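Sync notes, pocket subgroup
Present: LS, DG
LS reminded everyone that the earlier model was apo-only. Rerun requested with C2E included. Inputs:
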Amino acid sequence: PILLISSVAVILIMSTLYHSLSEILEVLTESERNAKHAALHDVLTGLGNRTLLADRIEQSLRHMKRDGGAGALLMLDLDGFKQVNDAFGHNVGDQLIKEIARRLLWRLRDVDTVARIGGDEFAIWLSNVPHLSGIKTVCQAILEDVSEVCSLADQEIYVGVSIGAVQATGTDLVSDLLRKADIAMYDAKADGRGCFKIFTKGMDAEVQRRTIIEKKMRQALENKDCQALQVHFQPLMNRGQEIVGVEGLLRWTDPELGPISPAESIPIAEDCGLIGKLTALVVDQACITAVHFPDLQISINLSASQFHDENLALRLEKQVRGNGIRCSQIELEITESLLLEHSQICGRTLGQLRGAGFGIALDDFGTGYSSLSYLHEFQVDTVKLDRSFIQSAKYGKSIAILSATIALGHAINLRVVAEGIENLEQQNIALDAGCDVFQGNFFAPPMAPVELVDFILTSKKGQASAA
Ligand code: C2E
Ligand code: CA
Ligand code: CA
């Protein structure tokens, strides 16, 4: 009996031990599974993360190498997500991300992989799309799905998405595909957002040029290379054909690349955080001209991105005064997008700039939202009508719109400048419509300071002999 009892006891102990062990094992397996899942998935949406995506692409490429076929990688970046977050809070932002994830999953097939790879960035691997037309169809459908209204927290919220896509075959590398889809996505953003772009070799060359320009700009700014980076000045004339001001425009000539237009260099400076330094250089050169011509108002362009810097107004005021110039001699040109942002910090900075005495001009009017009525609240001094506005005003109705816009501007005490006047006809249209100030190659192109001196002397002589 003792033997029997002890055998039973051993069996009981063993079985309890076995149960506890298998329970522990189960818990361990479960937590390992959880850890694995967490390592490969995004907590908020449950979608795969970058690691899982790369792994799926890798596997798929291996199959394609063996069996042929083609896939595609899509990179998605939401447009306007930051504004939703700022306006409605992070909680709504999170819900919005979940909703977008749900729409993407609904749209795609089981064999495809949807991953969340950043705050508002998603990536999609389409494992079997032999033709470009298939990729385009998917991109178009996603654009439509995402832009549908989201009803969240009693609000109707709209966001858009920019998509970059690249076609893939078995010989591609995952890192290359990710880079190319990213390049295409930035191209879609640059092209006005809310669209998709398929990667082409030309885009690669474009990115390489951007990288070179960024490097060269950094060097030129570090060396304070005033030979390469210059400011030219374009006269602004009043109705009596007298010069009343000049606009400073950046001119950059690189020894190897040749002249690089501001249309190319300024967006790069904005993107890579060099716009502040570049503006400082422009301000210094503009102040030198301001000292020589105390009667001229000097206009300087500011980028909207500079307004995210809280100390912009203080720094500009200090710099201008340090150069011995009154702030009131300087007019700062901003674009409409800045006013439309309605952000607190931009409004405050604008107020500080005005407080310091700077004039404020709204540039490129007629290319964007184009409503003067809201300018009232921003206390802008000048509005500059874009070249396209004057050019399109040729016939009855469009001339009437131009005249009405100028009259409205005058009614709220704005000075109205017509930009880009290229010929006598345009000058007369702008004159008849009531513009106060005129700028354009018809009067004078942007000039180096020495040429500006000549221009001013000659036009003064002309005025004197006319009198
Ligand atoms: P913007 O401020 O609208 O400047 C006027 C642009 O029109 C200048 O181009 C000028 O050369 C050009 N322009 C003047 N008259 C005529 C004309 O009769 N016909 C035509 N077709 N064009 C004319 P630019 O110098 O190439 O500058 C392009 C843009 O780059 C500027 O547009 C401005 O937004 C930006 N930019 C230039 N310099 C700076 C700068 O120092 N800082 C910042 N943030 N932006 C700058
Ligand atoms: Ca301007
Ligand atoms: Ca302009």
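DG: Residues 363-364, 384, 386, 419 surround calcium ion (ligand 3) (CB under 6 Å).
LS: The chain has a mean pLDDT of 92.
Action: DG to write up.
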